[in-house]
């Protein structure tokens, strides 16, 4: 049967996929073709991951992928689908099928196997695609057996810190308390530039619920919360519906799967817009309706969490992984990745990269492969400068370290972190001190203010960075040492993980791009000059913000050095690369 | 015992009880209150039970949920309503204020007719969100208070909406405008401007 699947993930939605679905339905209704049921032929799906080329339409059964579809193309798509032809114009780089695209060819879809295929609003479709099979297999085992399986799989928490999930669950199971136990799913994905959790929630929401049920079964918890950030209205809507359908079909509530005493109540808690609530103890405070400030540990959440009840908190991806591990066995998971970091990693590729989107790769893939094979390289064929992992908690990885593997240990070794999986690619035009300062400002505005090192330290680092970037009087090389010193204090004494990792972007950029800082500190080190290659097109003169470039048309132009502010606009604008950067002292 | 009875004020104020317990212990310590150890302990135990009850009540009153209901009713959290809730439910007004100012979705003032949210996540930042912000400020004459000259537009900077493929982007009253540049922003704003003049 012919099926037209339209991506309705937030990203494609923002580019108009709702209109496309409406248009398809209109066309099919007006055409009234025999043997085609309008409701069954047009399907909304979750995110396909290839957000750069959105809105995406996939035609089954051939899996033809059309990109950047507009309302005008709908008519043509319907006709060609019925005739069995392909519209070349809408293909991505001439590749016909999903699996032919480089973007998908090098990926391993383990966790995201259902996103982009099933309808996130329909529990029946989820069950059709092996849904709740992991839970069924779990309830046939004893609770300890389930925990042992999770432990043996080596699954590490996908929220960033990478703590063993099985061990965490064991803590909760071992907690002897007369209070009810609580399971919390953390979907407060605040890292700028990452949207993996959103993709999962919008594409496969039931798997998260299934994973939470498995956790509840194995630890004896009766209550659950999903904490989803408010900036994802679509995910909140989908989750609400998923919870309701799960209740209606007996997967939530009392005596789940007809198992006596297996009760679980699940509640969605939309966040209120605070980055720090992604930290587990801050998230607990937020669920209680308080200011989202981290708590001192110990007591750990497993002993005293939400409303002083023993609590287990995992990232939504972690819960989803468990369902696949229980259904398909440990080996299906362990065959990917390394011994210490088994499985796959779900990453978001953003920045100056050709193919922005969500990818899933085996742990241990090199950053180079990720950027060039899957990501398609750098936009406008510029040179890569660095890759940032882990958002504001991670660090910069310079281009000579691009062969670093993506797993918890390898990234820690070079001063960055795995984090939740946001990958930001920057090219030669980007200034590293400025990006470090951007992250610092983010930390300042999102710091909860509870502990001094984070609240004041980040502000002080920003002040120093600001004086360097804006070439203020009094900046000196020792400032960099000062930043390193303050960073050390913050790392040692901040209360929560977010504070402790806040200096990472500044530290790693100083470590790997010190020269760029020195260039700014020591003032006018290099200037821009126009060489004989100049063809006199006048583009640089037009673009110069201070109008300090002179020259007649079709003749060599000259930069008046006195007024030049070294912004580099001309350098980037020149079509023939006639402008060079030169050290002034060399002249 | 008289001294203790006087303290029993009868109201359920959580912090008040806490202060009173400290006061009793302090008076006993400096010898101003002459009761034996056992009675004192019993009395304090009673206070503490009352305190725990109170704490539970407060926890049941989830401030975030209260504020969310206000937001959906009024579009913001009016001061009078906060004071009313504080009195009715016995929650210190400062607690509500503390929560309301901590989270970015709660607003204490009536929002403008058009709320422009510009994403300044990393992906939008490296793809030029600064330029977008500058254009909006110039176009609508928005000053440091982030409100336009005619009070119709307010500007907010938000951190990552997770739509990085559409970067840079902005949201005006829940409508998304992807893949922007200065020219597009100008056109969008002018359209809104003329429509409402």
- Integer average pLDDT of chain B: 82
Q: How large is the share of residues in beta strands of chain B?
A: 5-15%
- Report the β-strand fraction of chain A as a percent range: 5-15%
Please report the total strand number of chain B as a whole number.
Answer: 4
* Strand arrangement in the largest pleated sheet of chain A: 10-9-13-11-12
Considering DSSP H and I runs of 4 or more, what fraction of the residues of chain A is helical? 25-40%
Oligomer: heterodimer
| Arithmetic mean of pLDDT of chain A | 91
Q: Using the alpha-carbon principal axes, give the shape of chain A.
A: globular
Q: Could you tell me the number of beta strands of chain A?
A: 17
Instruction: Count interface residues per chain for the largest interface.
Output: A-B, 51 and 37 residues
Would you spell out the secondary-structure blueprint of this structure?
The complex is a heterodimer of chains A (587) and B (197).
Chain A: E1 3-7, H1 10-14, H2 17-31, H3 38-41, E2 42-45, E3 57-60, E4 64-66, H4 74-83, H5 102-105, H6 123-128, H7 133-139, H8 143-153, H9 165-174, E5 182-187, H10 196-203, H11 205-219, E6 223-228, H12 233-248, E7 265-270, H13 280-287, E8 311-315, H14 316-328, H15 330-334, E9 344-351, E10 357-362, H16 367-374, E11 384-389, E12 395-398, H17 408-413, E13 422-427, H18 432-446, H19 452-469, H20 478-493, H21 497-501, H22 504-512, H23 514-521, E14 526-530, H24 539-543, E15 549-550, E16 558-559, H25 569-573, E17 579-583
Parallel strand pairs in A: 1-2, 5-6, 5-8, 6-7, 9-13
Antiparallel strand pairs in A: 1-3, 3-4, 9-10, 11-12, 11-13, 14-17, 15-16
Chain B: H1 2-7, H2 14-29, H3 37-60, H4 63-74, H5 79-89, H6 93-102, E1 114-119, H7 122-126, H8 129-140, E2 153-158, E3 170-172, E4 175-177, H9 182-195
Parallel strand pairs in B: 1-2
Antiparallel strand pairs in B: 1-3, 3-4
Helix pairs in contact in B: 2-3, 8-9
């Amino acid at each position: 049967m012919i099926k037209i699947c339209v991506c309705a993930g937030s990203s494609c939605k923002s580019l108009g996929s709702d209109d496309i679905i409406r248009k398809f339905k209109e066309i099919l209704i007006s055409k009234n073709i025999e043997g085609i049921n309008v409701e069954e032929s047009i399907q909304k799906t979750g995110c396909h991951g290839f957000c750069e080329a959105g809105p995406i339409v996939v035609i089954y059964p051939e899996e033809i992928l059309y990109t950047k579809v507009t309302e005008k193309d709908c008519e043509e798509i319907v006709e060609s689908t019925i005739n069995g032809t392909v519209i070349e114009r809408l293909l991505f780089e001439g590749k016909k099928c999903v699996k032919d695209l480089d973007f998908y060819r090098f990926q391993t879809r383990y966790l995201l196997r259902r996103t982009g295929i099933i309808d996130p609003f329909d529990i029946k479709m989820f069950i059709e695609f092996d849904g709740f099979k992991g839970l069924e297999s779990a309830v046939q085992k004893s609770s300890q057996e389930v925990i042992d399986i999770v432990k043996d799989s080596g699954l590490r928490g996908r929220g960033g810190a990478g703590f063993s999930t099985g061990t965490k669950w064991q803590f909760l199971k071992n907690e002897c308390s007369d209070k009810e136990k609580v399971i919390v799913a953390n979907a407060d994905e605040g890292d700028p530039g990452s949207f993996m959790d959103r993709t999962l929630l919008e594409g496969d929401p039931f798997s998260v619920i299934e994973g939470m049920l498995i956790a509840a079964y194995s630890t004896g918890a009766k209550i659950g919360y999903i904490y989803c950030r408010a900036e994802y209205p679509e995910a909140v809507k989908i989750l609400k519906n998923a919870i309701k359908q799960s209740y209606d079909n007996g997967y939530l509530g009392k005596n789940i799967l007809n198992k006596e005493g297996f009760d679980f109540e699940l509640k969605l808690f939309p966040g209120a817009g605070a980055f720090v609530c992604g930290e587990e103890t801050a998230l607990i405070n937020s669920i209680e309706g308080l200011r989202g400030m981290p708590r001192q540990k110990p007591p750990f959440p497993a002993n005293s969490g939400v409303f002083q009840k023993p609590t287990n908190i995992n990232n939504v991806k972690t819960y989803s992984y468990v369902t696949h591990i229980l259904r398909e066995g440990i080996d299906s998971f362990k065959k990917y990745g390394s011994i210490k970091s088994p499985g796959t990693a779900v990453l978001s590729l953003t920045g100056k990269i050709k193919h922005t989107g969500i990818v899933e790769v085996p742990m241990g893939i090199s950053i180079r492969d990720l950027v060039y094979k899957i990501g398609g390289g750098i936009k406008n064929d510029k040179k890569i400068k660095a890759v940032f992992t882990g958002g504001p908690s991670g660090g910069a990885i310079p281009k000579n370290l691009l062969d670093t593997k993506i797993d918890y240990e390898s990234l820690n070794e070079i001063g960055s972190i795995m984090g939740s999986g946001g990958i930001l690619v920057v090219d030669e035009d980007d200034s590293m001190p400025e990006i470090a300062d951007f992250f610092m400002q983010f930390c300042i505005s999102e710091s909860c203010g509870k502990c001094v090192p984070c609240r004041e330290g980040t502000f002080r680092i920003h002040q120093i960075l600001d004086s360097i970037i804006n070439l203020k009087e009094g900046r000196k090389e020792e400032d960099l040492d000062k930043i390193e010193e303050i960073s050390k204090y913050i790392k040692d004494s901040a209360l929560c993980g977010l504070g402790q990792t806040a200096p990472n972007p500044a530290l790693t950029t100083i470590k790997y791009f010190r020269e760029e800082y020195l260039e700014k500190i020591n003032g006018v080190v290099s200037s821009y000059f126009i060489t004989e290659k100049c063809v006199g097109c006048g583009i640089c003169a037009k673009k110069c913000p201070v109008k300090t470039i002179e020259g007649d048309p079709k003749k060599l132009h000259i930069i008046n050095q006195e007024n030049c502010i070294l912004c580099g606009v001309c350098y980037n604008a020149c079509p023939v690369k006639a402008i060079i950067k030169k050290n002034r002292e060399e002249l | 015992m008289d001294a203790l009875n006087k303290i029993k004020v009868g109201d359920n104020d959580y912090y008040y009880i806490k202060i009173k317990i400290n006061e009793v212990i302090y008076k006993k310590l400096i010898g101003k209150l002459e009761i034996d150890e056992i009675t004192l302990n019993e009395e304090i135990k009673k206070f503490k039970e009352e305190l725990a009850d109170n704490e539970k009540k407060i926890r049941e009153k989830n401030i975030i949920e209260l504020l969310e209901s206000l937001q959906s009713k009024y579009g913001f959290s009016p001061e009078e309503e906060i004071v009313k809730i504080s009195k009715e439910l016995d929650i210190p007004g400062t607690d509500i204020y503390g929560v309301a100012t901590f989270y970015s979705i709660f607003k204490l003032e009536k929002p403008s007719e058009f709320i422009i949210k510009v994403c300044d996540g990393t992906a939008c930042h490296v793809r030029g969100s600064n330029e977008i912000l500058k254009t909006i400020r110039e176009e609508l004459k928005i000053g440091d208070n982030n409100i336009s000259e005619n009070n119709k537009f307010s500007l907010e900077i938000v951190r990552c909406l997770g739509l990085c493929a559409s970067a840079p982007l902005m949201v005006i009253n829940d409508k998304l405008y992807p893949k922007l540049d200065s020219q597009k922003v100008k056109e969008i704003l002018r359209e809104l401007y003329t429509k409402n003049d």
